[in-house]
Write a structure and sequence with these properties.
Elements (H helix, E strand, L loop, with lengths): L8 H5 L32 E10 L2 E15 L5 E12 L10 E5 L8 H8 L2 E3 L15 E3 L9 E4 L9 E2 L11 H18 L7 E6 L2 H15 L6 E5 L16 H17 L10 H21 L6 H15 L3 H6 L6 H7 L6 E3 L7 E3 L12 H20 L14 H5 L17 H10 L4 E7 L7 H9 L8 E6 L9 H16 L2
Parallel strand pairs: 4-7, 4-9, 9-10, 10-13, 13-14
Antiparallel strand pairs: 1-2, 2-3, 3-7, 3-8, 5-6, 11-12
Helix pairs in contact: 3-4, 4-12, 5-6, 5-13, 6-7
């Protein structure tokens, strides 16, 4: 999920939501006319370079490979290319014993540069840790001593229509834009990669962020059941898995208000907008979590039968926990809508806070509007990522390409195909069952999940709710929460803690 206009948040920000061959969408099929020229398929490109970095006092030598990986149909004709960057540690005695992790962001319609330069890759973007504006270029990269390359080789996945990945020949990008279509193509990419790079018998992990939680859940059965690709673990960063817990489809859905109340409290605490003093964020959140999952949810469940006294009592609690006025809570029918909260919290200062990371703020042109003009987190982080990545490709990896690198595709997000659109009762997308079934099929499969306290989209409390109601064995599941937002790793202490936790997860039995 990256860089979408706020006006589309409720409908599209988290449209979170068998083989590489994808069926034609209506009107997309190529003509059979003999005079129509056939689209040429270029030769795949490949760029290889050698590098070193210091991590924890250890010198790591590694090979970086940027290349096209072609997907092919049943007639061995290319349908799409995934342009991928992989990092492989050198000097490994038995390469097949070395883990390999496939990494992607979400959107849908996002390339993998955010995780690449923010958390797991060998190079790290130099961005303020305190959520302040990074300013204008030139921006800087630095070696990432916390890279998880110390525990696993890395393969960064840019799905079709993002990065330099695209449909080939007479195929179109839109054929790959949908829950099932996307999962099919990414699964086939992984199968193709481990085949051409001889990694079938390596320990394998999938690491996905945001919509990447949905993609990961859909990938597990495709890889394990359809393609016989065994997995060792999945790593979820700020995942969307069950849309019913997120703040985008809220009509008649009281659960989303309960699962997001602690994140609203964390954001209000960060900006010092709470009427009471709290000894710590942890103390606040423990109380708010107990209230959100108990009295608050039970009261909302009563609907219009709630008494005036009950309503006033809950409104007072919401004022105490979120900083909004008691009157505002009453007028909101006790349901604090996250997309309005980000405008309301600092309205008296003429500012809004970030939906993706509530620590970020920006001045507003319209101080009386119901919603902000945009998301300050995306505005302050998007340019620095794209600029440094473009420079890194050309100067470090020697990838000299003139075509545009698509960091985030609004086109893909807006055209994403959802399953069951024609059904009479199509509701929330919930893929927890697919992930849980994968842990039943493979009793060695483990799950790690990370969330940020200040993320008002895929909130940490919603993430815990999703996973603890999934049926996944608690003994094979690790759930961790960190300070920061959707990309909690932009906060330096969380970057270090999260990186170490992921390495520990991969190295543990």
């Amino acid at each position: 999920m990256r860089n979408l206009g706020l006006a589309r948040f409720a409908a599209a920000l988290l449209l979170l939501a068998g083989t590489a061959s994808v069926g034609w969408a209506e009107g997309d099929a190529p003509s059979d006319k003999a005079d129509k020229p056939k689209a040429e398929v270029p030769e795949p490109r490949k760029f290889t370079s050698e590098h070193r970095l210091q991590s924890g006092g250890t010198d790591i030598a590694y090979t970086a490979t940027a290349e096209d990986v072609y997907l092919k149909d049943g007639d061995d004709k290319p349908t799409a290319t995934f342009f991928t960057i992989s990092y492989v540690k050198k000097g490994v005695a038995r390469p097949e014993d070395r883990p390999v992790t496939f990494v992607f962001n979400g959107g849908p319609g996002s390339a993998s540069i955010w995780l690449h330069f923010g958390l797991v890759g060998p190079r790290l973007i130099d961005i303020p840790s305190d959520a302040s504006d990074p300013g204008g270029p030139p921006y800087k990269l630095k070696d990432n001593p916390w890279t998880i390359l110390r525990a696993t080789d890395l393969v960064f996945v840019d799905p079709v229509g993002t990065g330099y990945s695209k449909a080939l020949g007479e195929h179109k990008n839109q054929e790959f834009w949908g829950y099932d279509q996307d999962a099919d193509s990414v699964a086939e990419f992984i199968r193709t990669f481990i085949t051409t790079h001889n990694r079938w018998n390596s320990p394998k992990y999938i690491l996905g962020e945001s919509y990447g939680g949905i993609r990961t859940s859909l990938l597990v059965p495709r890889l394990q059941q359809n393609l016989n690709v065994g997995l060792n673990g999945v790593i979820l960063i700020s995942p969307a898995i069950n849309m019913g817990t997120l703040p985008f489809v809220t009509a008649g859905n009281d659960l989303s208000y309960a699962t997001h109340l602690p994140a609203l409290a964390a954001t209000a605490y960060y900006h010092k907008k709470l009427p009471d003093q709290w000894p710590s964020l942890d103390a606040l959140l423990k109380e708010v979590e107990a209230y959100a999952g108990g009295e608050y949810l039970a009261t909302l469940f009563k609907g219009d039968t709630i008494t005036k006294e009950e309503k006033e009592r809950v409104a007072e609690r919401l004022h105490r926990y979120t900083g909004v006025s008691k009157d505002y809570a009453m007028r909101s029918d006790l349901r604090i809508y996250a997309l309005r909260f980000i405008k309301e919290l600092l309205r008296d200062e003429g500012k809004s806070v970030g939906l993706l990371d509530g620590r970020y703020t920006q001045d507003e042109l319209d101080d009386v509007a119901a919603f902000p003009d945009g998301d300050p987190f995306s505005a302050k982080t998007g340019p620095i990522y794209v600029a440094t990545f473009q420079s890194y490709l050309r100067n470090d990896l020697k990838v000299d390409l003139a075509q545009r690198y698509i960091g985030s595709s609004n086109e893909a997000n807006n055209q994403w195909k959802r399953p069951g659109q024609d059904g009479a009762f199509n509701g929330f997308v919930d893929v927890t069952g697919s992930l849980a079934q994968g842990t039943k099929d493979n009793e060695a499969l483990r799950v790690f999940s990370a969330a940020g306290y200040h993320d008002l989209t895929t909130s940490y409390f919603a993430t815990s709710y999703m996973l603890r109601h999934s049926g996944i064995d608690a003994g094979r599941m690790t759930i961790k929460d960190y300070e920061g937002g959707h990309m909690m790793y932009l906060y330096q202490p969380s970057l270090e803690a999260l990186s170490n936790d992921i390495v520990k997860f991969i190295q543990s039995k």
